[in-house]
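We both want to read C-alpha cells more fluently, so let's practise on a single case. Would you supply a protein for us yourself, any chain you care to pick? Would you write everything just below, so we can both look at the same thing?
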Amino acid sequence: MRTPLSVVIGAGGTGGHIYPGLALADALRRAVPDAEISFVGTDRGLETRLIPQAGYRLHTVDMIPFDPALGARRYLLPAALLRSGAQCRAILRDQRAQVAVGMGGYPSAPVIVGARMAGLPSLIHESNAVPGRANKFAARLTPHIALAFDRSRPHLAGGERAETVGMPLSGPLAALDRAALRPVARRALGVPEEARLVVVNGGSLGAARLTEAAVDLAGRYLTRTGLRLLIKTGPAALDAARAALEANGGAAVATAVPYLDRMDLAYAAADLVLCRAGSATVAELATIGMPAVLVPYPHAPGDHQTHNARVLSDAGAALLLPDAEVTGARLDALLTPLLADPARLAAMGAAADPGTHARAADLLAARTLALAGHPHHLVTTQKESA
C-alpha cells in the first residue's frame, strides 16, 4: 500500500517567502492530488492570513528573527532555534512528513532544524540574489539547496552543489500573456484604452516612500494627457493616501488600493511598474517581460534588494532608482519620458531573461518528491500544458 505523501513547508514573515511556498504547494498538489501539505510559520507574519486563505494548514512555532537590530535579544536566538526546532520535529512526526522544505526567512529555519533532529531529508530554496541569514544558517544543515538566481550561489555554504530552479510563481503569473489579457484587465480596472498606466507596488505591506511620491506624482499628472496611476498602499496607509489624493486633485488620475489580489490583471493593464525589488517581484517582471523602475528597500539585509534589482537593470530591462531619490518631481522627470516612448518600453520588456521562473514551482516540486522517495509523473507548468 502506498504511503500518502506528506510535506511540511516553512515559509513566513513576508509575501516574498510565502507566495513561492504556496506556488510549491500547488505544484505538489498538481503532481500528487492527495498529498498532505502543511506549513510552519509564526503568529506574527502574513502567513497567518495568506496560508489559511489559500486552503493550507498553518502550524505556528516560537521563533525570533535573525536580526542584529534585536539588540540583547539576539542572544536568545540559539535557545529560540532549539525550542522551535523541537516544535517542528514534533510537527513533522505528527504529520508523518517524508520531507521538509524551507523557503527562507526566519520562520523557515526551525523546519530545517526539526528535520535534522527527526532524521528526515530537507531542502531549502533561496529566493534572493544575496541569501538571508536564515538560509545561510540552514544551508549548513542540509545538502539540498535550490536557488532562484544563480548569483546567490557563492554566498551559501555548499552553494557549488545548488541547483538553480528559478522563483516559484503562482499559476496565473507563470502563464500570463500580458497582451492577450490587456483588454480584459483594462476594463476590470477601469483604465481607458488610450491611457498610459503606471502601477505602483510597494510590496506585501506597501511602501510609505513610494506611496507618498506617487500621490505627489498624481497631482502633477493633472496637467498631462492620458496618464493614470494605480497605487497599492497596503492597508495601513490607504486612508491617508486617498485623503491626500483628494486634497491635491490626484484622485482624478490615480486609484489607491490596499492590495492587488489580481497581480495578473495589474501587470496586463500596466505600461510600466514602479516597485520594490523583492525577489518574487523581480522574477515576475522577468517572466512576463514587464518594464519597470525598481526602488530597492534600503534596509533589506545585505542590501539584497539592490542585488535583486541588478538582475534586471544590468540587462536593460529595468531602471534602478535609489530610495533616497524617490520624490514626485524625480518620478515625473523619469517616468514621463518613458511613458511617451513605447518603443523603449517594448525594448525593456524584451530585454529581460525569463529564465526558468515559470517552471520553477514544478522543478522544485519534482526535487521535493524525489527526496520524499515518492513515485510521481513528470510535472509540467500550466504555461506548457495550456
